[in-house]
Amino acid sequence: MRRADTHDGAFRDLTAAGSSSTLLVFPPGRPSMSLLDRFALFYPMRIVGTVFMVIVTSLYAWQFGAFGAFQYALTSVLIVYPHVVHFIARAHPQRRRTIELRTFVFDSFVVGVVVHAIGFAALPTFVLITVALASALSVDGLRQMLISAGGVLGGVVAYAVFAGMSFDPRDSIAIDVVSSVFTFVYFMAFAYSAHNRSALLQQSETRLRERTASLEIEKLRSDRLLFNLVPARLAAQMSTPGGIRPTRFDHVVLLAVELRHFSRTLQAGAADEVLAHLMHCFKAFDAIGDRFGLEKLKTMGDTYIAVAGLPTPGERDAASAVEAGLSIREFLADLAVSRRAHGKFVLDARIAVHSGSVIAGIVETSKVSYDVFGSAMKTLLGVLRACEDGEIAVSDPVRRLAGDAFPWRDLDTGEGSVSRRLYTVQPRHGAAPMTIQA
Question: What domains are there in the chain, each with its CATH number?
């Protein structure tokens, strides 16, 4: 992680510098080397520039008889100082930018000395000053260009102080040819560097698009996981500072479906086939719940639990839950007919529906989950246990909330308990009668 941060910081530093003579294309598989070595072209270009100045001053001194101690000293400085700067920059890589920018001032100072030493010959003077100022501008903007201009002026003044004023521009074909060649080489290198910068930016944009696409995919995956953990209408609260706080919800409707004799069937048959059948049923329950506005809360082994009215209750929550139970009952009946026809095992089911108040919140353990707590859940499981196989048991609160949505018929179990009063509802599509317990 620290290494990635270093690379990102280097990239920001590189794009901020904007040097037209130092940008390199990422080598395949090794982007960091190009980013950290963004001054790689300074050394060779400085050597090219100093060689040009040595040739120009030597030709001028040779043609016009100006050889002397000063010429030899200037030539020695021009030959040696690029290597000294390169050595210092490599010895202190963390300060390389500062070293290079300060060296630009010295480069400009040397240019001023050289243009005065050649008597301000028109073409080489124009080339040297243009290259010095253009390089400074490309590296660090207008401020650096103005500083370099001051360095050029300082070099001119320094030569006048130590060697006297010498404004004697003379034409020389040899000097003009060398100046033209240097201009061509420099601006070809400038264009090559600009091309590399463009390639670098294109590659970085491509990688940025790839990273953005990857992040979007990961977000979709995390959102999908989040929707599997909490009800969809509560998922947005997960990203808020407080998250999902424990909240009391009244008149929540709970639906439970238990596939009977699952453990016995699992031990007796092929585990893969039994579990595949269980998952097939649970996926069908999901689809039915979506159709009637219920959301899966959780599964507990062979028991599937869904909820309606969380977080916002609706007038038809109870009726929708009963409709979902009837649809699940019909689905399982049709599935049983098909499986028996193919000689496969069949799991009976019992279904319970209850309504009440719950406390809902996030359970943060090693695995995050969303759950509901309270007597309503306990009552739901009690109603489920009171169910016979193939029945749909409905608690009295659901019966009252559903009202006349179904043709209820009261059946007394003889136990004298309101919780054991039975109701039947007219089956659909000619299905077998179902018993509903209230």
Answer: 2-210 (no CATH), 245-437 (3.30.70.1230)
